[in-house]
Amino acid sequence: MQPTFAVTLVRTSMRCPIMLTANKLIAQARELAPPLVKRAATVELDWDVRQKSRFDATDSQGRALGVFLPRGSVVRGGDVLVADDGSLIKVIAAAQPVLVVRHCREHGAPLDLLRAAYHLGNRHVQLELQADHLKLEPDHVLAGMLRQMHLIVGEELAAFEPEAGAYSAAPHEHRHGHAHPPDHDDEHGHRHGDTH
After folding, report:
1. 10 C-beta neighbours (distance < 10 Å), count
2. Rounded to 5 degrees, what are φ and ψ at 97?
3. Dihedral in degrees, nearest 10, Cα atoms 146, 151, 157, 159
4. Which of these, 185, 189, 112, lies nearest to 146 by C-alpha position?
5. What is the pLDDT of residues 128-172, one digit of tens each?
6. How many helices (H) and strands (E) does the chain have?
7. pTM of the prediction?
8. Which positions ≥6 away from 182 have C-beta within 8 Å?
9. Beta pairing partners, 153
């Protein structure tokens, strides 16, 4: 006698996930109450995605997002997307492979970083500028060039926030705590390295 196997079919209802649409961006969560931002869902995005004005993603609550921002928009870590249902999604700059460039204390000077930024800028390389290092996306040819300039080039996993272009649509804000109007001529009695 052969054993018999019973097969039971279970019918499950397959629900299509609802996609939220986000077409508004609040730069650096400005004017949002900190408790709202703290409770917001998050979405972790690398630079390749954040430099696009239209993309799909999944937030920390598992919701599908369709992001449709004005052309030329760039999303930065710390920005907040506003979904069509009013929910907030805080953007986190995802760690990604980057080259970190530092000057060599034994054979160089901090000015070497400025020289490197100049040469990389001539090649239209997207570049994150920091006081003591530069970051760029991995490129073995550029890494070789930088090493020939006696700079230290290392590979790391880190968030990447390249400098916005001088003619970018985003309003420029100085890092010393206040914004200047477009016709500002910087003759207001202090150097930009001063603290207020």
Report:
1. 4
2. -65, 130
3. -80
4. 112
5. 999 999 999 999 999 999 999 999 999 999 999 999 876 555 443
6. 4, 10
7. 0.74
8. none
9. 101
136, 125 Cβ separation under 8 angstroms = yes
- Helix 140-148 with 111-122: angle, nearest 10 deg: 140
User: Rounded to the nearest 5°, which phi and psi values hold at 80?
Assistant: -125, 125
pLDDT digit string, tens, across residues 22-80: 999 999 999 999 999 999 999 999 999 999 999 999 999 999 999 999 999 999 999 99
CA-based nearest residue to 172, from 159, 161, 163, 160 = 163
Whose tokens are 């397959």? That residue is 14
Residue 132 neighbours by CB under 8 Å, 6+ apart? 102, 110, 113
Contact between 151 and 145 (Cβ < 8 Å): no
